Amino acid sequence: MRALVVADEVDERLWAGIGPGCDVGLVLAAGDLPFDYLEYLTDALGGVPCVFVPGNHDPDLSGFTRHGGLFLRAGFPQAWPGPAGGINADGRVVDVCGLRIAGLGGSVRYNDGPNQWTQAQQARRARRLVRQAARRRRRDGRGVDVLLTHAPPRGVGDREDPPHRGFDCLHPTVERMRPDWLLHGHIHPYGEHPREHRMGETRVRNVVGKHLIEFTAHEVRT
């Protein structure tokens, strides 16, 4: 599976440089991109699925459910502000294109904006995600292939200023899930090429901008 992985920065070259012949079967988005940009990417690639998590500059997408083709919030119909056709993986484990993807959006709380969490709040969300992944694994024997986050783990490619500190809880999350990849955004490289990190056997990559990544789905994880 070849995926286009994007976050935080719109790459103007993609507006004219992609199409159905690009051999990309999936778009993964790690937050803080215009939703119409994500819609354009999926349409230009022939309608491939788009799995995303929200960043701290994205609108609040919590509380939405879908019933009978309508989006509901607090029991009332409401237009969903997310990308049309996009799969919001925040706090969820989803199976798409043969990959099992666990998502955890948002950044460390630094003001009153949406999609921001204290370390304790994100830790609770991460524990729920780990339990969800474990239930799925008990059911079919498959582990998580990709952990898609907006912010990085604390001390693994993050920064020291408060808005760009990583989450401590991602360390035990990776230890328990053992995904092949942790893909995150949020940390702008400003022209530099950030190095890839390792957490055990998990490859950790900052995907701000655009990346093309080949994934191998594991039918059985031990």
TrEMBL record:
Family annotation (InterPro entries): Calcineurin-like_PHP, Metallo-depent_PP-like
Domain of life: Bacteria
Membrane spanning stretches: none
Residues covered by the Calcineurin-like phosphoesterase domain: 36-190
Pfam families, sorted: Metallophos
Protein's UniProt name: Metallophosphoesterase
Lineage per the UniProt record: Bacteria, Bacillati, Actinomycetota, Actinomycetes, Pseudonocardiales
